[in-house]
Write a structure and sequence with these properties.
Layout: H1 3-8, H2 14-28, E1 33-37, E2 42-46, E3 54-60, E4 65-69, E5 90-94, H3 97-100, H4 103-121
Length: 123
């Protein structure tokens, strides 16, 4: 199943918000690979095939859309944009296009990209 089919399973405005987040990620993560997972109702974004290559995910539900960040609990988050009760995995709720214009969101995405690069290079 492709990403469009996963998004289309949800009503408006959830599907539209998911689509906007998808475009946002593809714009700000150059060369990223999109990996839809229909069983988990998510779309993964990675720079390789392994779990450690994962950078983030779009998590879909009937209530809304979340941007999950790999090891988000370890990312600097001075504005407390990340939420979730997990010690390792955290997410950012995306409720509208306005959330995508939050500079803190782009900063977190850049931090996640840098963390990925450090995992891959060991530096």
């Amino acid at each position: 199943m492709n990403a469009d089919k996963i998004l289309s399973q949800y009503g408006e405005p959830v599907a539209a918000t998911g689509s906007l987040l998808r475009k946002f990620l593809l714009k700000h993560l150059p060369g990223i690979t999109e990996q839809p997972d229909a069983r988990a109702n998510l779309i993964g974004y990675s720079y390789g095939a392994g779990y450690k290559d994962l950078t983030c995910t779009i998590l879909m539900s009937k209530k809304g859309v979340k941007l999950g960040l790999y090891n988000g609990g370890e990312l600097p988050d001075p504005l407390h944009v990340l939420t979730g009760s997990g010690k390792v995995h955290k997410y950012v709720p995306i409720n509208s296009e306005q959330d995508l214009n939050n500079p803190a969101l782009l900063d977190l995405l850049k931090q996640a990209l840098q963390a990925h690069q450090m995992r891959m290079t060991g530096k």
